[in-house]
Design brief:
The complex is a heterodimer of chains A (113) and B (115). Chain A has 113 residues and is mainly β. Helix content of chain A is 0%, strand content 50%. The chains are: A mainly beta (113), B mainly beta (115).
Chain lengths: 113, 115
């Protein structure tokens, strides 16, 4: 089945550690996105990529990094510079040049201990 | 800048009654508007979208939305609510002002359907 997969579902990290969240899609979509969700704040855009080897900062990129070496993969690294990393992280993809909706993964919940 | 607003943090409705979840938008040009639903600890699921054409859009699970250009609104509706409709609902708009496609979300409205 086509879809978008995030892993791990739950992740615990100590302060000062970097962690990488995986996002893989087999929908052949060009565009991929990372959002952060906090209670009462909706979804905020971290990074997005329209094409392989290119990506742009979203509204809250500080303390995060991404890569887009393959069309199907868009991993997000939460660095130790991110001051408040505990959140629910959502990856999504869409067809760039159509009127399509976003397809979301099931999310990764990161907790900093 | 493009934006969407969901003025209600929570909407309560009795099972079997009609429901409305409100969304207003601010865009330049023609809006591409979307509704999504989220169940606890899950990703968002697409419900419906408005691109052009008929102002009444029908979507999944019996939901529909009415696009109103003069009021810049895109309210989500359902004629008869089910307890299983209880979830978090997000309105979104697609933004192309930066030369790349972004999706901007509202803050979400929690729908509670009471048995």
């Amino acid at each position: 089945d086509g879809g978008i997969t995030q892993s791990p579902k739950y992740l615990f990290r100590k302060e000062g550690q970097n962690v990488t969240l995986s996002c893989e899609q087999n929908l052949n979509h060009d565009a991929m996105y990372w959002y952060r969700q906090d209670p009462g704040q909706g979804l905020r855009l971290i990074y997005y990529s329209q094409i392989v080897n290119d990506f742009q900062k979203g509204d809250i990129a500080e303390g995060y990094s991404v890569s887009r070496e393959k069309k199907e993969s868009f991993p997000l690294t939460v660095t130790s510079a991110q001051k408040n990393p505990t959140a629910f992280y959502l990856c999504a993809c869409s067809g760039t040049y159509d009127t399509g909706e976003l397809f979301f993964g099931e999310g990764s919940r990161l907790t900093v201990l | 800048a493009q934006s969407v607003a969901q003025p209600e943090d929570q909407v309560n409705v009795a099972e079997g009654n009609p429901l409305t979840v409100k969304c207003t938008y601010s865009v330049s040009g023609n809006p591409y508007l979307f509704w999504y639903v989220q169940y606890p600890n899950r990703g968002l699921q697409f419900l419906l979208k408005y691109i052009t054409g008929d102002n009444l859009v029908k979507g999944s699970y019996g939901f529909e939305a009415e696009f109103n250009k003069s009021q810049t609104s895109f309210h989500l509706k359902k004629p008869s609510a089910l307890v299983s409709d209880s979830a978090l609902y997000f309105c979104a708009v697609r933004d192309f002002t930066s030369g790349t496609y972004k999706y901007i979300f509202g803050t979400g409205t929690r729908l509670k359907v009471l048995a």
